[in-house]
Specification:
single chain, alpha+beta, Pdz3 Domain, 3 domains, 4-stranded antiparallel beta sheet
Length: 456
């Protein structure tokens, strides 16, 4: 428990610090006076002046702020700074800067979180390697993601080369598909059970088609547990990292895909699971919880979930490849998370997704802390920080007053009104509405965390 708390404090502290540092450095760049740089919200517990700025650690740990001269207060979140007791130059006030300068200051926070993710991924790829499956065998092709030519791919085939480049693992398969510069991707395959070699050409004229081809091919992987999510049924049942799933309800399980299909179809149904651990067989009982998994059409499908992750191997990358793929992976994760969020919102508004399904995907600080501890134990803490940093950047850009996206919305309104900003009173009212929305989501997410922990 103590380890989990320490890891959670470290992760959230770094992400908040980097976010606020982005605002701070941008403010300094355009010569805005910064009165306070705070990690945490509310009343400062510890503070120290350095130059014209007070650096503080505040009482509420979930957040931070940069208080600038002439900036709006965020109702009740920032402790007051007595500006009349501090020498300030009106020319250096935030509100007196040009729109593009204020945009830069506001946008710099989310941008700093994105750049942190890029650096983390680049470091992971260079010092540790890229996660991959030690196989080039195709177990299945997702029918909803089929491209012309893919109907010729037979399940169980082994990919020998992609566009003439030999491949030894799934990372090399994905990399060579993604790096294809021609209008088509040519796969040389070897069929299973002596079927011989054959070639398939798939039109992939752009990045979207190449990504679709990558997503459509499902690799064959053993049902070997690489990670267990805290508070989930697998953890409660005693399944551990490194366990090999042998059988479910007496049915032999050959692959990860077979295992997930069985579990997905058995929501809230007790299952007898046989695992192999260090050469010994154990019989465990697991009851998958009812959850929601995203579909390619933007909807969610109810399915049984137990909270386990597959086992990966690590593939060494050169410095150049690590820098390149760290950046591209960050962009991919940003687009993926943004699309998932957009699908969730549009699904709710069109009633393709129920409120209950949307609520189930929410996680709060308790879940973040638990996952941080689990990912740290499995040696993947930096990957978790990168994903969380991208999430923080995207969420902060939502057009909700009190978030960075809300302040960008204020700037847009000012531009549309030909340089006339909303009054301080109007901005404050909108910020109060934003606070209600944000705190409501936080309460809902924390309630979800407690429900998962208590099994309600």
């Amino acid at each position: 428990m103590g380890f989990t708390v320490l890891v959670a404090v470290f992760v959230l502290g770094v992400l908040i610090f980097v976010h606020e540092l982005g605002h701070f450095l941008a403010a300094k760049l355009v010569d805005v006076q910064v009165l306070r740089f705070s990690i945490g919200l509310g009343k400062p517990l510890f503070s120290r002046f350095w130059g014209e700025t007070e650096y503080s650690l505040s009482a509420i740990p979930f957040g931070g702020y940069v208080k600038m001269a002439g900036d709006d207060p965020a109702e009740g979140l920032e402790a007051d700074v007595e500006e009349e007791q501090v020498s300030t130059d009106p020319a250096r006030h935030f509100e007196n800067k040009r729109v593009w300068q204020r945009f830069l200051i506001i946008f710099a926070g989310p941008l700093a979180n994105f750049l942190l993710a890029v650096l983390l991924y680049q470091g992971i790829f260079y010092f540790k390697g890229a996660e991959s499956f030690d196989t080039t065998v195709i177990e299945a092709v997702e029918s909803k993601l089929l491209l012309p030519g893919m109907e010729g791919i037979r399940a169980g085939s082994k990919i020998l080369s992609v566009n003439g480049h030999k491949v030894a693992n799934w990372y090399e398969v994905s990399r060579n598909i993604g790096d294809a510069e021609s209008a088509a991707t040519v796969l040389q395959l070897e069929g299973g059970e002596g079927e011989g070699m054959y070639t398939v050409s798939v039109p992939t004229p752009g990045d979207t088609a190449r990504q679709q081809l990558q997503d459509a091919l499902v690799p064959f992987t053993l049902p070997l547990v690489g990670g267990v999510i805290p508070g989930k049924p697998a953890k409660k049942a005693g399944i551990e990292r490194g366990d090999l799933i042998l059988e479910i309800d007496g049915q032999p399980v050959r692959s990860w895909l077979e295992m997930t299909r069985i579990i997905h179809a058995k929501a809230e149904v007790p299952l007898s699971v046989a695992v192999e651990r260090e050469g010994r067989r154990f019989e465990l009982e697991v009851t998958p919880e009812k959850g929601s998994i995203p579909q390619s059409d933007g909807t969610f499908k109810e399915a049984g979930l137990i909270g386990i992750q597959p086992q990966y191997e690590l593939v060494s990358l050169s410095f150049t490849d690590a820098v390149r793929y760290g950046a591209t992976n960050s962009v991919y994760m940003t687009l993926f998370i943004s699309k998932s969020l957009a699908d969730l919102v549009t699904g709710l508004t069109t009633r393709r997704i129920s409120f209950g399904q949307a609520k189930d995907v929410l996680g709060g600080p308790v879940m973040i802390g638990q996952m941080a501890g689990e990912w740290a134990r499995s040696g993947r803490l930096w990957s978790f920080m990168a994903v969380l940093s991208i999430n923080l950047a995207i969420l902060n850009l939502l057009p909700i007053p009190v978030l960075d996206g809300g302040h960008l919305l204020f700037l847009l309104i000012e531009v549309v009104r030909f340089g006339r900003p909303l009054s301080a009173h109007q901005r404050m009212r909108m910020i109060q509405v934003g606070l209600i929305i944000v705190f409501g989501l936080m309460i809902l997410a924390t309630a979800n965390d407690l429900r998962r922990i208590l099994g309600l």
